[in-house]
Structure formats: C-alpha cells, structure tokens
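Q: What residues go here?
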C-alpha cells in the first residue's frame, strides 16, 4: 500500500494512529538483533503521535505526509537525536538544528522514527565499517544489507519505516535497496537541499529516498525538493511530480547494456535483468542493446575523485571544535594526529590517505586530473545515449549481497558492485532501483534518465513495478 493510502486510513480513522505506532515500537524492539537503529526514542514517537492526534481531533489542516513514518540516515541532522555518522569521532554529537529536508517533512506531519545505521561517514557498501556494528539484512540475517545507507534499506525491508531518507554518492541508496529488495531513488543533482547533510564528496552527494513502492516517492519528493538558500547547489523550482497511473510505455525507447559478463555479473542478477527486459517489452517499450566504452572505468575513477573530496572534507574533524578528542597528546600536532587516528575507522583513514596522495603537489595531482577527464568522458557517453533513448536500464548491482564479513575482507569486490551506479552521480542524472521480487533476495534493475526527467523516470518505474507485482 502506498503512503497516501495509509495517510487516508489514519485520517478516516480506519487505522488508529496510536495503536499503529505502538506496534511499530514493538517491532523495533523485536528486531534489535538487526542493528538497524543508532538512536531510537519511543518517547519521541509517542509525543509526536499525541501532537498529530490533537491536530486531527481539532480538525486542523493536516500535512501531506500526515502520520507517515520516516527513518533517517545518521548523517542527516535531526534535533533531539545524535548525529554520529556511525563513527567514534561523532558518537556523542547532538546537532542544534535540523537539516532542511527534516524541517520540510516535519512541517507536513511526518513522524521520525530515529537515526539508522550506515557505513562510517558513508564510506563503504555493507555497514561493516560502522563503529556501532554491522546491520543485518532482514531478508537473510547472514547477509549484508549493502551500503552505505544500510539501516535505511533494512528499515524499509523489515517493514518498520514507510520511507527512509539516505544519501547517495556513488550508489549508496540504490545498492542497499537492491540488496534488501526495496525501492531506492537518487534524484537529479541539486533537486534536494543538502544543507544539514554531512558531506562526503560534494560534487557527487545527493539525498535519496527509499520505500517499498515507487508510488510513495512522488509525495515525499514534492515535499523535500526545491530551492534552499542555505544550499547554493539546490534548484530554484520545487518539483511538482504527478503520478500517472495510465503512463504508456508504447513510445518509450530503452537502452540496455551489452556483454554484462564483462562486468562479472552474477547469474541470478543476469537472469532477473533478462526478465525485466521481457516485461518492459510486454508493456510496449522498445528495448535495444547499446555498447558503452567507458563505464567499465567508473569505479576506478570514482575511487580517485571521491577520495580527493573525502580528504578535504574530513579535515574539519580535528578534535578542536566538536567530536572526539584524544587524551593522549603533548603538542597540537599530537592532538590532531592521535584524535584522527583513534577517532576514524580503517576505511575512512584509507580513503583520506588515498585522497591526500592523489592531491599531493609532489605528483602534480596527475591521477586526480586524469580522473576528472575520464569522469567527463563517462558523463558525455551516458548523456549521448540519453539523447537517443528515453532511459537506460542496467542491473543495480552486479552481484548478490555477500555474507557478513566477506564484503569487508574483499573491499574491491564491493566497490565493483557499483559499476552502473557511479555514472549517474558523475553526470548528476536521476536514477531508481526497483527489485524484481520484493519478497526475496534477487536482482534489481536501475532505470537512468536525463537530468530533470525525474517525473517520467518515476512513472515508468511505477508502471514497471506494478507489472511485476501482477506477475509475482
């Protein structure tokens, strides 16, 4: 059921708001072993429910997200909750203001469930880099949920949250959505304000939305998108996306990727991708195979550019202004060095070191400058295809979720899984991941559209998902 239908049930009294959220609180407690939440407050939820019930009783104007539950990735600032970024460095940090997107959903009467686990400072693809331990995949507790928006995807897959807000730098919303068999949407770059979202790589970061169904994304996007004077990269106009239940695919042209074996694509993923193509053809779309020359370089280039931006962004965490501070130092240099050595995890330190090396004047920033050039080539290649086709269809991830620990022990394999996600961030495009079967671990497909074509992207993926539900 989509969130607008649930909202109407709350308003019409078909579902009691208080009883519903007592069940949610119980479900969170019953699923503590999944390690989804870093900061959860039943009392905050009860107070919010009481406030909304009073609004309903007094016949006040109700927001478009009335009663809708939202989990929030722990790098998005929410007053009243810690904001740890899943790091020892910020384990006790409590913000004094909300991110813009949080103010916007609260204004529309949403209910925040709490802050959910993630990879430390969004660096990773499994949640195994989190200072607070790994989140388990609700569909199979022996598997990772993907990342870095691990808790976001797990909270949706476990039917705890209706909506989750995450961040996507190179697939960090779409990858866990694929691994947890839910929907993950990365909007056009600049569509949603990043004010109050802790930066990882500014030229790539974008807030994303996770849900169980595509239809639920429309009203959330309409609330949180648009101009924010606190974020100069935000767009001037709010989106006013309309869900067209009669959207036709009969004149839609979709490009698919040739020779997927070259990307070490898992056999299950490959078969589900073929099913998706057949379903799109049944819906009337024209599907053609296209050769991509540069996509295979995506993750290597991403690691260079992302690490350089990480190296710069992480310099603000020094133990002076906020966050963890070592007790073991005899000089200012030792204070900085020991604070960062003790406060950051291994993956964060690895990326800072790589970025610092790539940016060093001693090597004339050779790799960084080459990386920017190849990023441009990849972006132009994808945009050129989108001039001829309405959408590009790829597998979201090239593999299925590995066992817990396997991903941490094989970081390069986890990086490679995002091969088809990264070009979207390079070019600032919009994309969405849709599972083939929401009830089990399996393949998911990614629809990619040109910049600002978000409405058509959501409509085509909504019709596609509806067709899948009829099949399964």
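A:
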């Amino acid at each position: 059921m989509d969130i607008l239908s649930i909202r109407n049930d709350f308003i019409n009294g078909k579902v009691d708001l208080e009883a519903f959220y007592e069940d949610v609180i119980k479900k969170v407690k019953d699923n503590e072993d999944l390690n989804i939440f870093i900061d959860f407050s039943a009392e905050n939820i009860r107070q919010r429910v009481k406030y909304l019930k009073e609004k309903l009783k007094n016949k006040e104007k109700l927001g478009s997200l009335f009663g809708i539950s939202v989990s929030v990735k722990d790098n998005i600032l929410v007053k009243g909750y810690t904001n740890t970024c899943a790091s020892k460095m910020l384990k006790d940090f409590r913000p004094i203001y909300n991110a813009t997107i949080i103010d916007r959903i609260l204004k529309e009467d949403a209910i925040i469930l709490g802050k959910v686990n993630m990879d430390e400072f969004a660096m990773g693809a499994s949640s195994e880099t989190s200072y607070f331990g790994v989140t388990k995949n609700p569909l199979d507790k022996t598997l990772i949920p993907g990342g870095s928006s691990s808790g976001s995807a797990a909270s949706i897959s476990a039917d705890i949250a209706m909506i989750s807000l995450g961040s996507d730098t190179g697939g960090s919303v779409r990858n866990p959505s694929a691994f947890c068999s839910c929907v993950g949407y990365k909007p056009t770059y600049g569509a949603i304000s990043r004010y109050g979202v802790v930066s990882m790589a500014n030229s790539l970061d974008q807030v994303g939305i996770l849900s169980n169904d595509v239809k639920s994304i429309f009203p959330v996007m309409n609330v949180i998108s648009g101009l924010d004077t606190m974020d100069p990269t935000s767009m001037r106009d709010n989106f006013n996306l309309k869900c067209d239940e009669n959207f036709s695919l009969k004149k839609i042209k979709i490009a698919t990727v040739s020779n997927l074996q070259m990307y070490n694509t898992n056999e299950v993923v490959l078969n589900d991708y073929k099913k998706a193509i057949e379903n799109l053809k049944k819906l009337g779309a024209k599907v053609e195979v296209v050769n991509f020359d540069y996509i295979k370089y995506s993750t290597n280039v991403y690691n260079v550019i992302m690490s350089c931006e990480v190296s710069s962004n992480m310099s603000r965490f020094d133990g002076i202004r906020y966050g963890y501070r070592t007790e073991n130092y005899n000089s200012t240099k030792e204070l900085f060095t020991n604070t960062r050595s003790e406060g950051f995890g291994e993956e964060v330190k690895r990326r800072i070191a790589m970025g610092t090396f790539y940016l060093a004047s001693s090597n004339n920033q050779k790799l960084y400058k080459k990386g920017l050039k190849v990023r441009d080539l990849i972006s132009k290649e994808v945009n050129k295809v989108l001039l001829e086709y309405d959408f590009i269809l790829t597998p979201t991830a090239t593999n299925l979720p590995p066992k817990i620990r396997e991903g941490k022990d094989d970081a390069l394999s986890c990086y490679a899984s995002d091969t088809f996600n990264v070009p979207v961030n390079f070019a600032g495009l919009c994309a969405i991941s849709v599972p083939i079967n929401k009830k089990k671990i399996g393949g998911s497909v990614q629809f990619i559209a040109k910049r600002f074509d978000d409405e058509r992207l959501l409509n085509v993926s909504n019709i596609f998902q509806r067709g899948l539900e009829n099949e399964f």
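A: Context that may help when evaluating the design: Residues 366-388 form the longest helix (23 residues). Residues 204 and 425 are 5 Å apart (CA to CA).
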